[in-house]
Amino acid sequence: MTLTVKEFIKDFKVQFQSMYAYSYEEGSTEQLYNALGMYVKNYLSGNWKETREKYVKNSVKQVFYFSMEFLPGRQLESNAYNLGLLDTIREGLQEMGLSFDELEEAEADPALGNGGLGRLASCFMDSLASLGIPGNGNGIRYQYGLFRQKFVDGYQVELPENWLRHRNIWETRNDKSTCMVRFGGNVWLEENHLGFMEAKYENTLNVLAVPYDTPMVGYRNDIVNNLRLWSAEIPIDEEENYHTLEATEPIKEITQVLYPDDSNYEGRLLRLKQEYFMVSAGVQSILRHFRKYNLPRKNIPDKVAIHINDTHPALVIPEMMRILLDEEHLTWEQAWEITFKTCSYTNHTILREALEKWPIDMMKDLLPRIYMIIEEINRRFVETTMPIYGERITWQTAILQNGVVNMAHLAVIGSHSVNGVAKLHTEILMNDVLKDFFELYPERFNNKTNGITQRRWVHLSNPGLTQLIDKKIGEEWKTNPSELKVFKSFEKDKKTLQKLADIKLENKQRLADYIEEVKGVKVDPKAIFDVQIKRLHAYKRQHLNLLHILHRYLEIKENPTADYVPRVFIFGAKAAPSYIYAKQIIKVINSLANLVNNDPDVGDKLKIVFFENYGVSLAEKIIPAADVSEQISLASMEASGTSNMKLMANGALTLATLDGANIEIKDFVGQENMFIFGLSSNEVYDLKAAGDYNARGIYESNEKLRRTLDALTDGTIPGLQDEGYAIFDSLVNYNDEYFVLKDFDSYIEAQRKVDELYKDQKEWTRKSLINIASSAPFSADYTIKRYADDIWKAKQCSEQSTGVEPLDGPIA
Ligand code: 73E
């Protein structure tokens, strides 16, 4: 059934009138957006219901992806696109004198995640639905998303992100499926009249978990999966106990705000409450189904896979045990077998400061029954491991260590699968971070390199490129990404290359206009657009990028008439509010931008643009216009990265260290089609082991570098307080934790090669084409297929879904 433009116009008018009781001509942009969103939601509701019913009726295995973060981005365009309605809607609106793009801007971009981890979860939701795999998301409906970033005087300021201020038309509150989550109080075990041990509770804080469901629309396959986000409320029958607004605070605060830390951990009580709240509500709602249909509990692992996205939801393991023991009265052995076979865990980082370790006292107070169960899991683990592996390994792998609950250890012990997110990262887990566990359970470890959805990150964000590919190789690549490799056969076709260059220039012009609009900076679209977009973190080394720009600036000042290839350095990055060093880097880049962008000696040779409030919507504008993708983390530190994949798929050339998924990008695209520099991860390990790294020595012996570093503190950059000193200090006086100085020379050399190659536009565009044509392996559809086949044992249940042929190549 295809919708005609005429039908759309008629239905949309009815929709608008039914919501606002006047004619659409009088509607505000926001009202028109709401009506359009509602129209799309109504359109898909039949499939949403049928998908749900089909899964139950056919009793298929369902995946539940538990994540504290989801970063879906705006949903109107992507839902309309996946449903096959987008062109019709665009045309219809145009006939009505309305603009789709304008209405779309009225949609809030839900920032319910920090960065890569949350965005990955949303790419996975898109791929699950598009592959027709029964998959559900389970998370938190934060009332405030990640802070809105503003720059005041070049400093980051955080403002609350009240994304629900306007109604969220995509969600459906589901009062029928609420559950109760208990915190604190006293708990003891008592034998009941049937002779079962039962857990008794008193003085608990009871919190009502209310689910809000959001449709996850598959690509043209009639599948609509579900994302369930939980909100904390006062239980209805306890309302009389909450007389004042203040009294309600401990409950409401649970789902009020997302913790703004990426790759970091702070043992805050509220965060532990959030984790347990989400986990308990999610597990209860899954197991309720088995009770309702009286299904054999031992079949749970055949019907359910629960995925633990980093350790944040690792309490799934004791919570599932709690329900199976206390409410289903299974034996420990039965409950453990079910739990272990159901759960799987992904590790996303090796950064020590990101590994969750909860103080035992905190856990005991807040979750007394859960703590008892963790203690018992630990006791049994120690009991079985000790006689076989001895003391050292046993104590190093125990869950309870030195007064804390080690969540990664809980996750590994309670899961049948443990995976990293890129080949190198998985190797580091096996050889270093989780080495002892790899010895205990080698069969559990596997790699699943991250991926991205081409639908959002190419088809929708880069329509020009998408049309060109369609024209050259047909549309099959859209459902079978491996077809993209056919595009490579055009690498020597002059016309195609010219067209590709034209499209890039158009995208750059569009971004240049936007830069002028929001930053008031005029940039030349013919300059190299050099992009680093990711959270601000010392290990990601935005300050290495900064040093190179500063070095370039000094060169221009010294020799303004030399022949420079014009470059625009583009940044997007939020710093965690408490991460002072990261905020100092932002300030220095902003101050340098202010200097450089207004220096008449510099002109178009060099510009710096630091966007405020980087997020999914901004990424969609920047990525199609990028020439260079900066992936410059210290080797071994970035688990995978995903902006590297998005930028490559849009034809940017990668400038990278051999870290995370950059290595696999190199394997597919070829070293000659990117710019590699810096220490390898083995060299980093050796350098750390040798313990003789001498940053000051490098500073003193490297003239070029010294001049650049000195410019941080000698007044070259106006407007700084002590931020330049702080960076200088960390690098020179505190021995440069992330080996920025060590990699400086080879980074400068790689940047020189970028300039050199850009002078040969044809060759640059040829390499760009090869990048695009080699990007298929990083489709999240492949990643999800591997998760489904190897870990979840979940089947595709729709023949129309994206067909993913097995890919040859190095991704395991
Ligand atoms: O390398 C990225 C990776 O691509 C990694 O840093 C990121 O996850 C991405 C997706 O796999 C990540 N985020 C976090 N840990 N790793 C994290 C940790 C604590 C809170 C929020 C996010």
Automatic annotation (TrEMBL):
It catalyses: [(1->4)-alpha-D-glucosyl](n) + phosphate = [(1->4)-alpha-D-glucosyl](n-1) + alpha-D-glucose 1-phosphate. The modification N6-(pyridoxal phosphate)lysine is found at residue 646. It comes from the Bacteria. One of its GO terms (cellular component) is cytoplasm. GO terms for molecular function: glycogen phosphorylase activity; pyridoxal phosphate binding. GO terms for biological process: glycogen catabolic process. This is Alpha-1,4 glucan phosphorylase. It comes from Alkalibacterium putridalgicola.
